[in-house]
Amino acid sequence: MLFVARVTRAAEGNRGGGCRAAMVTNPVHGLPFLPGSSFTDSTKTAFHRSQTLGYRNGYAVVRRPTVGIGGDRLHYNQLSQAELDELANKAPILTYGPPKQAPPAEFVPAHVAFDKKVLKFSAYFQEDVPISSEEHYRIRHVNIYYYLEDDSMSVIEPVVENSGIPQGKLVKRQRLAKNNVGDHYHWKDLNRGIDITIYGKTFRIVDCDRFTQEFLESQGIEVNPPEKMPLDPYTELRKEPVRKYITPSDFDQLKQFLTFDKQVLRFYAIWDDTDSLFGECRHYIIHYYLMDDTVEIREVHERNNGRDPFPLLMNRQRMPKILVENAKNFPQCVLEISDQEVLEWYTAKDFIVGKSLTILGRTFFIYDCDPFTRQYYRDKFGMPDLPRVDVSKHEPPPVKQELPPYNGYGLVEDSAQNCFALIPKAPRKDVIKMLVNDNKVLRFLAALESPIPEDKDRRFIFSYFLATDMISIFEPPVRNSGIIGGKFLGRTKVVKPFSSADNPIYYGPSDFFIGAMIEVFSHRFVILDTDEYVLKYMESNASQYSPEALASIKNRIQKQDVQEAPAPESENQQAMEEPKEQDLETLIDTIQMHLKDHSCQDNLRETFQIYDKEGSGYVDKETFFKVCDTLNIPVNDSLIKELIRMCTHGEGRINYYNFVRAFSN
Questions:
Q1: Is 158's pLDDT higher than 90?
Q2: Can you give the residue ranges of every domain in the chain?
Q3: Residue 323 CB contacts under 8 Å (≥ 6 apart), including other chains
Q4: What CATH number does the domain located at 570-661 have?
Q5: Is the dihedral of CA 375, 376, 379, 382 positive or negative?
Q6: Which of 233, 269, 466, 556 fits a disulfide with 364 by CB distance 3.0 to 4.6 angstroms?
Q7: Are 462 and 480 in contact (CB under 8 A)?
Q8: Looking at residue 479, what is its pLDDT?
């Protein structure tokens, strides 16, 4: 205490009053921790240890102390649990914001993590044979599988052919008990060179596969070295030669059965029965069994062949090749042929690829065999590779059908149908073309080129139907001309003069233009004019026409513009005052003959009278064309346009009385 007081006074002389109070309160605080300078705090009165156990809801829990002995606060745990969690989860703030927290690792259950992962061990067990003079025990090899997904095990014995012992799954997949307490086998209990007991049988594990070894080593288990699998003494005894003496000269059928068991020769054959009525060429597969020299014939069915799906044509049996003489009258349909009636049986050397053989009255031709059969004939009989014979029937080349010369009746397409079928059908039409070009007609004004003077003034109207490529010619009747007008040519296809009768070339839309020469059945026509629809059609389909045809359109349009130019007032007045009544009547008769198939508009006059309030017999052009459009009057026709022109008077008014006369009866 004296030393403490001296130190306190020295501190008071060197420091201020604020420090004095602190030193008085805690006189030991601030002393150097040197040997001989450590003192116990005389002010402490409690020296107990804090509790680390407690109870919560009736359960004992562990709690971490916050103070040490005597109530001193522990320096390593001065922060609360919330503060510690906050510091643990706090991440530094980066330039572009806090980083994204990594997602927690997904929980993967055991049945997913270890799915299809199996440990395989090779083992054996010894089985006693009490009643046998040749063996006292036998060694049986097994495979032990351990499934990691559910800790189950199974024991499977590989099947050995002709062993005479039920083999396969000895212990089905389940969890196997290790002892009487109830513990089960775990993969930690399995290793090389150990014995395990399963349901009273002791299995010796001698080896495992590579995956099992790597898995055990990854879990820290030291894998024992592999052991050698013991051999079964009776199996080794059977491998030794049984007989020590010479075999008799007679062929041993038992040896043939054991040597050629499951060895079958396969041949592919056909039976050609096309010579008989309703016969056909059918395919078969011939099996020759080497173990007992029997033959089986199987049918090859094709899809939709119309036959019942019988698999066999002949059951497996021995085939006689040569019979005795008295066997011809033998009732074969009642009794089977015995060995006494047969002189020779079919053998393997009788079945050769490329040769025919007769079996029970049917002749089969062998055209191919499988690779095993080729190898057998090469080793047994020294025959080279048997080539495959092509038996597929090649269809003859189609005969080119030649049509007889054209007889001149009807169209060539219609006449050719008589050569294709007994009952001719109408030739196929281009329906799409007919639907697209329905009611589309190109009309042309033409003149007949003839040395006869009376024919020079005759005019004809050509109508070309785009839907069917047919042409009709109509001659408007001219009064007092001495020539009966009307239909000059009905709808038909016109052949060009330079084409042949067998391969005709018909006139198309591109052949009709102003100035073109059209020859129709030895009559030559020259195209003089067209209507506006033809001009629009030629402009929209300019690629189909020649430069000469396009030039004729250009000249026609220029000429029309000149004709539509306003004439001097005196000439127009004179033309209106002196109408040609004779031409008007002729034009009306021509239109009635040309449009006789058109439905007559009986209400045409009444419709015009509705718009003619004054009853003058005239309507303006706008009203006139409106009525014509309502009643479907073909105002684009060249004859109708001429009639409208002749019925038009000054100031754009049209006399509808003369116009109605052309559409009434």
A1: yes
A2: 1-41, 44-94, 110-236, 253-380, 431-563, 570-661
A3: 330, 337, 341, 342, 343
A4: 1.10.238
A5: negative
A6: 269
A7: no
A8: 81
Q: Encoding tokens for residue 664? A: 């009434």
List the end-to-end C-alpha distance of the chain, in Å, as a whole number: 154
Q: Are 253-380 and 431-563 equal in CATH topology? A: yes
User: Residue 396: which pLDDT band, with cuts at 50, 70 and 90?
Assistant: confident
Smallest CA-to-CA distance from 619 within 604, 606, 628, 609 is with 609
Of 448, 483, 441, 443, whose CA–CA distance to 465 is shortest?
Answer: 441
Neighbour tally for 460: CB within 10 Å = 22
Contacts made by residues 136-144, CB under 8 angstroms, sequence distance 24+: 137/233, 138/232, 138/233, 138/234, 139/230, 139/231, 139/232, 139/233, 140/165, 140/232, 141/229, 142/170, 142/203, 144/120, 144/190, 144/196, 144/203, 144/205
Q: Considering only the C-alpha atoms of the chain, give the largest distance between any 2 of them, rounded to a whole number of Å.
A: 170
Band (6; pLDDT cuts 50, 70, 90)? very low
Chain segment 247-281, per-residue pLDDT in tens: 665 667 788 888 888 899 999 999 988 888 888 88
- pLDDT more than 90, % of the chain: 24
In sequence order, what DSSP letters do the residues of 334-366 get, joined into one string?
A: TS---GGGEEEE--GGG--TT-EEEETTEEEEE
Could you tell me if 288 and 372 are in contact, meaning their C-beta atoms sit under 8 angstroms apart? no
User: Is a pLDDT exceeding 90 seen at residue 169?
Assistant: yes
Which whole number is the average pLDDT over 543-570? 68
Q: Note the pLDDT tens digit of each residue in 354-387.
A: 899 988 888 999 999 999 999 999 988 888 778 8
**Fold observed for domain 110-236:** PH-domain like (2.30.29)
How confident is the model at residue 219, as a pLDDT? 92
Contact criterion met (CB below 8 Å) for 661 and 646: no
- Distance between CA atoms of residues 314 and 296, nearest Å: 6
Determine the average pLDDT of the residues in 522-528: 89
Candidates 3.50.50.60, 2.30.29.170, 1.10.3720.10, 2.40.70.10; CATH matching 431-563: 2.30.29.170
- What's the token pair of residue 62? 């562990």
Q: Which long-range contacts (CB under 8 A, 24 or more apart) does 104-113 make?
A: 110/148, 110/149, 110/150, 111/149, 111/150
CATH topology of domain 253-380: PH-domain like (2.30.29)
